[in-house]
Amino acid sequence: MPKREWIHAWLLLLPAFVFLIAFTHLPAVQTLIDSFWSTPKGRRPAVFVGGDNYARMLADPILAKALWNSAVYAALTIPASVVLALAMALLVQARFAGVALMRMAFFTPTVLPLIAVANIWLFFYAPGFGLIDQIRGLFGLPSVNLAGQPETALYAVAAVTVWKEAGFFMVFYLAALQAVPPALREAAAIEGCGRWTFFRRVTLPLIMPTTLFVTVNATINAFRLVDHVFVMTRGGPDNATMLLLYYVFENGFRYWDTAYAAALTILLVAILTVVGLGQFFAADRRVHYR
Amino acid sequence: MTGAGGLDRALMRAGGWVLALVWMAPLIYALWSAFHPSAYEARFVLTAPLTLDNFATAWGKAPFARYFLNTILLVTMVLAVQLVLCTMAAFAFARLEFPGKGVLFALVLVQLLILPDILLVENYATMFRLGLVDTILAIGLPYFASGFAIFLLRQTFRTIPRELDEAARVEGCSLLGLMWRVYVPLGRPAMLAFGLVSVSHHWNNFLWPLVITNSVETRPLTVGLSVFATTDSGIEWAVINAATLMTSAPLLLGFLLFQRQFVQSFLRAGIK
Amino acid sequence: MTFRSTLLGSLALIGLSAPAWAIDLEFYFPVAVGGKPAETVQALTDKYMAANPDVKINAIYTGSYADTTTKAITAARGGNAPQLVISLSTDIYKFIDEDLIEPFDRFVTEAEKADWIGGFYPSFMLNSQYEGQTWGIPFQRSTPVIYWNKTAFAEAGLDPEKAPATWAEMVEIGQKLVQKDAAGNVTRWGVQIPSSGFPSWLWTGIVAGNGGTLQNDKGTEVFFNSPEAIGALEALIALSRDGVMAPGILDWGGTPKVFFEGQAAMIWTTTGNLTNVRANAPFPFGVGFLPGLKQPGAPTGGGNFYLMKGSSEEELKAAVDFVKWATAPAQAADWTIATGYVAPRPDVWETDVMKAYVAEFPQAAVARDQLAHAVAELSTFEGPKVTQILNSALESAITGQKTPKEALDAAQAEAEAILAPYRN
Question: Is the ipTM beyond the 0.95 threshold?
Answer without folding.
Answer: no
